[in-house]
TrEMBL record:
It is an enzyme of class 3 (hydrolase). It holds the Pfam family Lysine_decarbox. It catalyses: AMP + H2O = D-ribose 5-phosphate + adenine. This is AMP nucleosidase. It comes from the Bacteria. Its EC number is 3.2.2.4. InterPro entries: LOG, LOG_fam, LOG_family_nucleotidases.
Amino acid sequence: MELSFKRTNGRIDEMIDALIQQAEGVHHAELVREMIISALKSGQESDYLADLKMLNNTMKEMRYTSKVFAPYRQKKKVTIFGSARTEPHEPIYRKCVGFSRQLVEHGYMIITGGGPGIMQAGNEGAGSENSFAVNIRLPFEQSPNPVMLKNRRLITYKYFFNRKVAFVKESDAIAVFPGGFGTLDEAMEVFTLVQTGKTSPKPLVLIDDESGYWDLWFEFIKAGMLGKGLISAEDFSIFSITRSTEEAIAVIDGFYKNYHSIRFVDGRLIIRLTKELSQENIEELQSEFPELLAPGTRITRTSPLPEEADEPDLLKLPRLALHFDHQHYGLLMAFIGRINLF
């Protein structure tokens, strides 16, 4: 039988509905029904065991990720990336310890990869009670660090791609210390996701050491990418570089001074704020960021839309609405920075 996501499966639809009802306590039953249909269709369409194992493990890992992070959804979190090979006696390790400790004092929790080096420094500074560790199963380097070894917020992944989802989806900011291929991979992934709108806007801070690790990287970006027209100048709004942990925290705090969050509804970008903007403020934004808007459209205030009813804790926030062109995500970061100056 060829299964469909539409309710055309007769007895199978009835059995799935009965299963969901029998399980009790299932939220958003229609989405769960589609996941069950997906599993059945996968079993029909593939007889290759490795593919089915990957699908199965992916679902298990993502389910467990949601379970671990769900109780802390209202708490802001900062993901820290950096080298697993950084030793505790190195100045950059101590800088990371101090940075994560300061973040906790500012009300944040910390997410790291759960391994040694900068990851351990992040967990050490935050303390086990304010930390998450999203570890990866590797034959070397990546056993859980002693701070997080027995923590209930330690998750160990088989797949890098699931781990990357957790790093970005669950965080409100990203801080990147010097590192190797893995660190650069993680940082560039976030650049790409923000640049293409595949994750919500969030501050990305590159914290430098005394040798100028990120300064060297920045020179390559300017000459090798911008100079060849491979990126746009507005993409520099995606990240900040600093050697000061105090400045890094100011960047993160400042990003949420007035900006709260975004959501797309029926083609409109809804920007939730912590305080109302005046009409004069809105006119300034309109004149300073015309490239963000679809031709002939304007930035307006709006009440919460019916589609936002699934986020009841945000309904009291003031909002702006605009018809975003879905191209200038780097400029959108600058737009948010401008909102935070009002």
